[in-house]
Amino acid sequence: MDILRVEHVSKHFAQHTALDDVSLAVPRGSVYGLLGPNGAGKTTLIRIINRITAPDTGRVLLGDREIRPEDVRRIGYLPEERGLYKKMKVGEQAVFFARLKGLSRREAVARLKVWFRKFGIENWWDKKIEELSKGMAQKVQFIVTVLHEPELLIFDEPFSGFDPINANLLKEEILALRDKGATVIFSTHNMSSVEEVCDHITLIDRSHNILSGRVDDIRHSHGNNIFEIAYRGDEAALRAAAAGRCEILEGSETQSVYRTLKLHVERDAEVRGVLGALNEAVEIRSFTEIIPSMNDIFIRAVNGSL
């Protein structure tokens, strides 16, 4: 079941079209990546979902009905533009935002203590925001975003400002929130994070949704029939067997007795025959399809070569 559906949403600003007939569906309990180059329309879509701005046409449904103002409390939103008050103390500000989300002061403090310990920032409670680095402030804002345990979490570039260790900590927390029942949408340019974290993605480019689906399905469906084999035997015999059947791309010596070689097979139906011919010529240890990365697919899609 989908927790969120965007149906034929368009948004125009003066002479600029930010979104043009965009539709997508976010499955409940998933991590959903919203991808696209700068200026593609991702942030505009996020703001429409959060009711910060309204679409010119189309609608957004949360569950089985159109989203309402009171539904905002069911959403946790971490914007790309950070919104902490620099002169306030960390603990005071965190409690303030928690109260805005409907928590009592007592419940807010109790939950904050748990999260502060988890992130190793217990000693920051009485520090002012202006004393914190960008990454430190990001931790505080992440905690404030998830503290009221919303069913839908939206993060815009959540890994910005984090070193690899803290970025990995954040990934683990995002997956833990999903496992506890939350649905997560996040916009990012970090394609490695997409492969590690996301179940589904939508790629927006030039105001249009140009690609949607499960990450694994997209990677497999946009492969180029490139394979790597590990083998033992005479390379000349292997190349002779491959001639006219497939294109040999590159080969390299391995550290063991086996050598590796990459090849391209034109059509799916020919793979079995190629493998059989090569196996007659040399001893094949492994035959593995090379699946394109999300970064490769992103570049090909935006360049129009997908």
Describe this structure in a few short sentences.
This protein is of the alpha/beta class and 306 residues long.
Could you please describe the fold and organization of this structure?
With 306 residues, this protein is α/β, with parallel strands linked by helices. It folds into two domains: 2-220, P-loop containing nucleotide triphosphate hydrolases (Rossmann fold); 224-290, Alpha-Beta Plaits. It contains ten helices and 14 strands. The strands form three sheets. Strands 6-7-8-3-9-10 form a six-stranded mixed beta sheet, sandwiched between helices. Strands 2-1-4-5 form a four-stranded antiparallel beta sheet, with helices on one face. Helix 8 packs antiparallel against helix 9 (271-281). It is elongated. The model has no long low-confidence stretch (mean pLDDT 90).
Count the E strands: 14
Poorly predicted parts: none
Kindly report the CATH topology of the largest domain: Rossmann fold
Q: Which radius of gyration do the C-alpha atoms yield?
A: 24 Å
The overall pLDDT average reads 90
CATH architecture of the largest domain: 3-Layer(aba) Sandwich
